[in-house]
Amino acid sequence: MRITFYGYNTFLIKSGVKKVLIDPGGDFYLFKGWLKSLIPQSQWAAITHILVTHGDPDHYWHVDRIAEKSGAPVICNETMVQEINAKRLLLGPRARGLAFTTEIKNLYTIAHFETLIVDGIEITGIKTVHGPLKIKLGPFSKTLQPGPNKRIGWGSIGFEIRMDKKVIVNLGDTLIHRDEWKTISSPDVLMIPIGGGRVHNTMDEKEALEVAEIIKPRLVIPCHYNCAGLHKKNANPANEKYFYDEVKKLGVDCVILRKNESIEI
Question: Where is the Metallo-beta-lactamase domain (predicted)?
């Protein structure tokens, strides 16, 4: 099994003929191709499954385009879908606000703690909650708060993925959930955000370390840190060396993947 990282929380998991894409988002940097696909378009047609952790642009912008190109099923939180005029419509990836406008031919919904099987891959929904996001432009700043009528963090869910005798956990963008995650036990891989120190929209390094100690994975891959955001090259900084060293002290393996780097497990 090969895992490739494309930045933010975009991962491609390849095992045999299966190619599972997590979070088909867009680059969030104004000066480097605003919202261009994080995963190269040359990879789109070969995708076999698409998993979406929530509806923010850096996680979701190209979901319908890749689904159309590949024919892959889309798996997302049940809150990402509404039935309107007898059609099941997905939250519009590029729509403003909570507009359900996009029809996907091959669509599966999942709830927190629910399990479904799609083409031989077993997927369980994990409880996650996106934190507030502070956006600063010069002297002006605005904090976007997740909520029942807010687009930020909409549909937040994590995934426990079981395929080809491996277990991979991806938590998306989330704050810590100590009690709910105690049921997750020793996955082969834990993909975990660590960039919430300055802007607490996700866990920071210390919280992510606490989660690694609770879950006890075999391998940890930190993500969603030192990412570009709007006009900033590094909107959510984290000390990956500190995190790496502290994870190793727990007796757990850790790998730092740069953009477009892969690891085989």
Answer: 7-224
